[in-house]
Predict the structure.
Amino acid sequence: MFTLEIDGKAVAVINGTEEVARDLFTCDGFKEDIQAMTSEGRPLWNGTSELKVRPATEDEVEIFEDALAEDDSDADFESDPRHAAAEDDEDEADIVFLLDIDEDEGEEDDGALNS
């Protein structure tokens, strides 16, 4: 598993290979998403800070596994076409955000995201 770190803060964990993690965390669609998403009212990414991909820590892996165990929203998941080019059945991966993501009005977000 690999973690996306921005400005020294762990933002998300993915259960793919390093290549899959780098491809997904640096694709244009994901960058747009993390610029639009907020935590405590602040964007997850400012558009200029380095997106660092590193091996996940044991604590991050545990958070990831706990979040997926609690996630029962697969039936409601809709694929984002902006990520379609980065997706491949054998490269399918799950992403769990490590920060509390601010919810849009009328939308629920438990922190887990499938891609």
Summary: The helical segments are 18-25, 28-36, 58-70. The longest helix spans residues 58-70.
